[in-house]
Specification:
Structural class: mainly alpha
CATH class of the domain at 371-497: Mainly Alpha
Order of helices and strands: HHHHHHHHHHHHHHHHHHHHHHHHHHHH
CATH architecture of the domain at 371-497: Alpha Horseshoe
CATH superfamily of the domain at 371-497: Tetratricopeptide repeat domain
Distance between the termini: 31 Å
Shape: globular
CATH topology of the domain at 371-497: Serine Threonine Protein Phosphatase 5, Tetratricopeptide repeat
Helix content: over 70%
Mean pLDDT: 82
Length: about 625
Amino acid sequence: MSIIAKARSVKILFMVGVVSILGSCAYYNTFYNANQYFLQGEKEFNALSDGKISVALRKKFDTAIEKANKVINQYPDSRWLDDSYFIIARSYYYKGDYRMARQVFEEFAHKFSSSELYDEAMVWYGRILWNLDERELAFFQWKKIMNRTDDMYLLAELYSSIGGLYFSDQAYDSALFYYKKATDVGKSYDIAAEAQYRVAEIDLARSKPKDAIKNLKKIDQFSPSLALRDKMQVLLTRIYRESGQYEEAIELINEKLNDQANEKIWGDLELQLGLIYLAQNDIESAISRLKQVTEKYKGKPVEADASYQLAEIYMNNTHDYVLAAAEYDNVTRIEANTLRAFESRIRSSEIKRFNTIRNRLDNLAKTISEIDLNPVVATDSLQTEIEVSQDPEELKKELEKKDTAQRKSIDTLVVFKEYYSSLYEIAEIYYFNFNQPDSAVYYFERVVQEIPFNEMQDKALYSLYKIFMDLNDPEKAAEYTAELKQSFPESQYLAEIEKRQVVASTHEFEADSILIEAEKLDQVDQYQALILFEKLCRDYPDCNAAEKSVLNLAYIYHHKLFDLQNSLTWYKYYLDTYPQGEFYAKIKANYDQLKSLEDALAQDDQTADQESEKTEVQAESEAVE
């Protein structure tokens, strides 16, 4: 335990004693609950594979911030002010709001320069600066801590943290340098064993299996925990699998599966076995083994791993979308509040939307097959003038006949329009969601070829051009460009290919310029991009750029910031503003899926609040006793 950790433990024990003696001090209960929410959130965050948090996890950090702020605002004389600021700053860090985290850490540094938490807080402050791409300033902060502290655990944590930041950037040389420094200074702490484990992972990532095995064995000299020893066994099978040493991997897995001492990792080992079969392209055996994992280890994290792998196999190998949706749904059943569950819900929703469009397309195709496109008639009932001087009854019949013919003609046009829109949607899903360019090309070409001069034709030709450019086949792409130029010389899509400016009004031009700027900013400063997208929606509602901005806003909040409320707001805005919009069906599906998630989380929050109230009452009761 570090000096800081020990000091904090003494402080907590001291305060518990004071609370017991005085029988009051409500701010401690508030701080205790803030700390509990933070620790729960931190534990879940550390278990994430990619560091992206779910809506439910974000809620835990929001609650920690809310309760810590309550300590600061309502109990300014509390001894827990520095701890409360520390909780708030780290919660913002985990949420990905680095600007707010920086602001709170800088306030902490100004107010609590003598706090025993100061050095650790400045380590975190450096992480914030790193993520804001101020790396020189981050190293300046870290070097100050390196020069002033003699806490070996804090130094090991610092070096390991820097290594982790380089590791996430795939800057493996720098990551190795700092992980090795962590093992040097933290030899008597678990953090050194964890750093050595990362060294082995880097070797695996760099396709150096022999070095990975060598460094994995070195972990033993750091007295790894039992949990880390289990991870080492699983990593070793991964090393064998990813390096193509399938026989060695299978032999090791079977050995561990026959030893009761490894029961805790049996599920992970069987998962690796399924992945080995997949790597050997033995799809049937891979599916069989992964199914066994889902059946034998129900309710455990490895069941979700296996279900996710099965879903991916059904999506990408067997193209059985019904089974894929079922496995994605199983992931969400097991992991209700993880990022993977969030993504699985989206994939399941995409598949269900695909099935809906396919069913609609089948019905439309049947309707079209029954339409007589060349009816034999003596006269054109839509063009023939009706004699108004004829008998009223005859006139009525003629008007009804003409009205029926007009409605039939309109209905036929609507059917064809919906049919080609559905074909186009199916093609888009195959390409962008299912990663099947061949199927996408098939459906785009149907849009182009089945019946000439439908309104989706030029857009489909442009999509075919884009696909073959993505596939590095410029000759094929040029064929579609030539066809587009011959049939639709005035098309905006042709202008896009030829890099010609489409004639537009000054107002449209201004909106397009702002949109381009916003989309560029999205790559470097999402929050400034959001401001520009909102400006377009507000100041240019009649321009095409406004609709694109709404889509950008919804996408950023949904897929980048994981902000449920704002995602719903902008999806709803699109549905209300663009009922005839090209992406209406897709937006509606996303909105419905997120709305269901919001309702489920609201129910979870209600239960959590009730439990929290019970905990606070119990804590107050114990304090009085």
